[in-house]
Amino acid sequence: MEKQLENHGVEVKNVNSTFYLLGILFGGITGGYIQETVLGAVIGIVIGLIFSAFFVRVLLNGRSHDR
After folding, report:
1. Is residue 39 assigned to a domain?
2. Does 36 map to a domain?
3. Residue 20, pLDDT above cutoff 60
4. Average pLDDT of the segment spanning 10-39
């Protein structure tokens, strides 16, 4: 009962999808700008997705209390 009262009104938000979207967006923009082709943008999207997955899985894993 006490635990329910302590956590009342506190919602945990999942922000992992935000990091994935930012990685995809800026990876695509960077790849497209550097290569000046659609293929470069696609490669940038893939690399941005890999970096964002690394960030979410490794770097944010130990800091769950901050989110």
Report:
1. yes
2. yes
3. yes
4. 86
Contact 28, 45 (CB under 8 A): yes
Tokens (6 digits) for 63: 């800091």
The answer to whether the pTM exceeds 0.85 is no
How deeply is 12 buried, as exposed, middle or buried, from its count of CB atoms within 10 A (0-12, 13-18, 19+)? exposed
pLDDT at position 41: 93
Sign of CA pseudo-dihedral 18, 24, 28, 30: positive
Which residue in 29, 33, 26, 31 sits closest to 44, CA to CA?
Answer: 31
Which candidate, 50, 63, 43, 42, places its Cα nearest to that of 23?
50
